[in-house]
Amino acid sequence: MDFEGIYRKSGRTLLMKNLISIFSKGEDPDLSEDGEFSEITIITSVLKQYFRELPEAVIPPDTYSKLTELISNDDGEYLNIEEIKKCINTLEASHYSTLKYIVSHLIKVSQLSDVNLMTIKNLAVVFGPTLIGSNEICPEVDFSSTGIKVKIISVILENADTIFT
After folding, report:
1. Is it the case that residue 74 has pLDDT exceeding 60?
2. What average pLDDT score do residues 74-80 get?
3. Which SUPFAM superfamilies has this protein been placed in (predicted)?
4. How far, in Å, CA of 95 to CA of 83, rounded?
5. Which of 61, 66, 20 is nearest to 43 (CA)?
6. pTM of the entire structure?
7. Is there a single domain that holds both residue 30 and residue 66?
8. Rounded to a whole number, what is the distance in angstroms from the first to the last CA of the chain?
């Protein structure tokens, strides 16, 4: 987790494809320091791609819409974290558990931001569009919603202790 740009830098494409192929076959790849996939950027790139390609996002469109309303209605002084928590609690169990786990991991990554340069904001920029699904068919419209997705993930990361208890 102390690798500079751990989630910002991309892994080598061929090795990423090989790793995905191994996972797709249900096999266990060698992720040891001496293994073929020892570069951290290969693993982090595959993880991001996995979340991007899920048939349904970790935070599905209906939850995204509710969170957007809660965060967009913020007057800048006070976010109702309890309402955000209630919204997150409506996720299906698999989505909730996955979100809780990845948020816990990202918080640990952010705690080493002096070395890896991955602050909560930087992690939210990477994972907002990756974890949050939308109903947008048009890529231009979906791209314009990136800012609110970043804000949502930032708020979740900053308030994880309250949201996931």
Report:
1. no
2. 67
3. GTPase activation domain, GAP
4. 18
5. 20
6. 0.88
7. no
8. 25
